[in-house]
Amino acid sequence: MYRTVYSPQGARVNLDGREVINMASNNYLGLASHPDVIQAAKKALDAYGVGTTASRNIVGNFPVHNELEKALAKYKDVEATLVFNCGVSANTGVIPFLVGKGDVIYSDELNHGSIIDGCRLSRAQIKVYRHKDMASLEELLKEPVKGKKLIVTDGVFSMDGDLAPLPEIADLADQYGAMFMVDDAHGDGVMGPMGRGTVDHFGLRHRVYVETGSLSKAFGSAGGFVAGSKEFIEALRPKARSFIFTASPMAPCLAAAALKVIKMVSEDESYVKKLWENREYFARRITKLGLNIGSTVTPIIPVIVGDEALAQKMSQDLFEKGIFAQAILFPMVPKGAARLRVMISAGHTKEDLDLAANAIEESAKAMGII
Ligand SMILES: Cc1ncc(COP(=O)(O)O)c(C=O)c1O
After folding, report:
1. pTM, rounded to two decimals
2. 60 in ligand 1 pocket by Cβ < 6 Å?
3. Among the options 65, 132, 217, 260, which is catalytic?
4. Residue 223 Cα to ligand 1 middle (Å)
């Protein structure tokens, strides 16, 4: 059975009746239950009610959807965006629009499951390259192809917190005439200037054909989006199946909440700065202990212990100490790479981070990991 949260999302939550420091949610900027965000959602609830009860292309499109798409485009520095009900739908909607039978997709072996599903739905041939391995990608790109080519990657990999080598991929995409798509669900609101994402972190804004993202993580709401040129988005709008066939597009209150967060983050760099201060502080403490955090450079900090039973035991031990960090096991990560996935938020105080690091140290010592 799943654990149950009896409080708003935050640095501390009531989980199964117990107050714990939450080191497991994607609430990177700590804004999921910010009073101004709740207020914005409430206002939209009063104005537009709860559900849309129709797809956006029929009678489910509200002013907040239009405003959100404009604000997102401005924030991401792209011509246009299209909002979906979640990141999974954005990926499963856009990939089959980009490619089909006779085309080829080049996909990193650690890409998110929703990218994999989008690839499968497209009926294009899927060629999987080794994680971040440009020689492996190029080897596949050299094979002859009659149709279109699409390279797709996560910007930030969700289980390891490492970054895709976007500049090198962009070069290969140019060299071999492939479209280039980045899913930046964990980079938006986190990476780059003002948290505009991993593409901007690398200064590649005009070299990526299409981006997908999620509003359920740094933006503290729910929903997904596709970002690209105006022409591309207008072509996608009547065609993406996960967009046109759903009568449950993003609820207006969720759109209003995401819109509020984007405004806050666009006007005030301190949320993103705080996230990075916390991330650096915590990563330093954990590294000093001699724990293996892999190749993370982001607020996703895996504490890799290897053995599955050990990861589960450690997660339970931490829970009893008042800290919640999720154990991640096969098939989410390869066999022998079980871990605790620790997620850092701007909402954590230094005390939260110290308590979490102390508990991890104590637990790791008790279990003979360090
Ligand atoms: C890389 C990546 N893409 C897409 C998604 C899906 O986003 P959403 O939660 O909005 O469906 C996730 C969510 O976990 C993700 O990690």
Report:
1. 0.98
2. no
3. 217
4. 9
For residue 89, the ligand 1 atom closest to its alpha carbon is 11
pLDDT tens figures, 165-208: 999 999 999 999 999 999 999 999 999 999 999 999 999 999 99
Q: Where are the domains of the chain?
A: 12-30+269-366, 35-267
Encoded tokens for 29: 């900027």
Nearest-CA neighbor of 216 among 154, 187, 258, 265? Answer: 258
Q: Which of 89, 107, 114, 158 is catalytic?
A: 158
pLDDT at 198: 98
313, containing H or E segment: helix 308-320
What digits encode the pLDDT tens for the residues 95-152? Answer: 999 999 999 999 999 999 999 999 999 999 999 999 999 999 999 999 999 999 999 9
214 pocket-lining for ligand 1 (C-beta < 6 Å): yes
186 is catalytic: yes
E strand or H helix at 255: helix 252-267
* Binding site membership of 89 for ligand 1 (Cβ less than 6 Å): no
Of the candidate CATH numbers 3.40.1440.10, 2.40.110.10, 3.20.20.30, 3.90.1150.10, the domain formed by 12-30+269-366 belongs to 3.90.1150.10
The alpha-helical segments, DSSP class H, found in 126-191 are 134-142, 166-176
Contact 85, 241 (CB under 8 A): no
Reading the block at residue 149, the tokens are 């080519």
| Closest ligand 1 atom to 158 CA | 16
pLDDT less than 70: residues of the chain: none
Cα–Cα dist 34/39, whole Å = 9
Look at residue 1 in the predicted model and tell me its pLDDT.
87
- Catalytically annotated residue among 76, 112, 127, 186: 186
The Cα 156–Cα 226 span in angstroms is 16
* Nearest ligand 1 atom, CA 216: 10
Is domain 35-267 annotated with CATH 3.90.550.10? no
